[in-house]
Amino acid sequence: MTSAPDTADLQAEMAALRAFSAAVGSDPSLTQAAGGNTSIKDGDTLWIKASGTWLAHALERDIMVPVEMTPLLAAVEAGDPAAEQAHRFTIAARNPSGLRPSIETTVHALMPQRVVAHVHCVDTIALAVRTDAVAELGQRLDGFNWAYVPYHRPGLPLAKGIALHRAQRPDVLILGNHGLVVAAESVAEAEALLRTVKQHLRQDARPTPPADTKRLAQLADAAGYRLPADRAAHAVALDAAATAIAAGGSLYPDHVIFLGVGSTVAQPGETPADVRRRIGSAPASILFPGLGVLMRADASASADAMARCLADVATRIPKGAPLRYLSEDENHELTNWDAEKYRQKLDAAAAKR
Ligand SMILES: [Zn+2]
User: Fold this and answer.
1) Ligand 1 center–CA 291 separation, angstroms
2) Is the confidence at residue 35, as pLDDT, over 50?
3) Is-above-0.70 flag for pTM?
4) Roughly how many angstroms between the first and final C-alpha of the chain, as a whole number?
5) 334 CA distance to ligand 1 centroid (A)?
6) Can you list the domains of the chain with their CATH numbers?
7) pLDDT digits (tens, 9 = 90+) for 307-322
8) How far is the CA of 118 from the centre of ligand 1 (A)?
9) Is the N or C terminus of the chain more exposed, i.e. has fewer CB atoms within 10 Å?
10) What is the whole-number distance in angstroms between the Cα of residue 103 and the centre of ligand 1?
């Protein structure tokens, strides 16, 4: 292990972090849309990705926000709801963008290591949604200093779950029904650790036949629906086991935020209009078994990214694996949380641009 660079190296490490962030953000198997976040600590200052921004844009625009760690950690320790509002701890004088820090800022602050990356790695999620996740992960992560944190809503509840493991100083966290955190003393080490963990958790997606885009285009026509931005999104409707997994409910938070609660599966012969009439609303995406997926015409880029994510996750979960879905209460608390409403608002604004 190399020693942590001193402050003089901060600029170089920040540049390395931006490059790492952009690479992670451009890999749909690690990050989708505004999900995932990276950070670096400089004394008591935590530089963290801004809420609602995309890691993929880390080289083009300034997406890092400075947060004062000591008061934020004190708020977590005290169970103070202020810990939910990391923007109250931003260092305004050094934050010209005025952006808010990530809703997952406490995750980063609680890790003692200098560099932290949190990603929604699809191989990780495919294991972290299982009720037997600990046993499955244990086999694959033997030799790592890792910890499993059961599902909690991001924010204070998740921070409390992570805080329980602080004495162990894990550098790999698996967040149940959510994703992966890796931490190290340098960007290069964090990057290497992320690569290694991903390799250990790798599961091949079941291959699927091609989507029937001709038939889907006919169904979409004049119905307020369109083909997905990424053809990989169709796979969830082209593999019966994956469709059944999706039909079971919501598996992780960003699905709920950007696609809504659960997934809507069309019944045989149904058109989008039939589906709308049956369920009384127009879902962001509709799965047509054996054909593929349609997106609502006004669905955001984030919704498209999450549609691809669902296909990537569901086709990696073995048929019959025991799954833990988000409960009705967990779905509800996500959609009614102010911090998530802020993220949705940024997303809607970006969709209009
Ligand atoms: Zn996350």
Assistant:
1) 31
2) yes
3) yes
4) 45
5) 12
6) 7-200 (3.40.225.10), 213-352 (no CATH)
7) 999 999 999 999 999 9
8) 6
9) C
10) 9
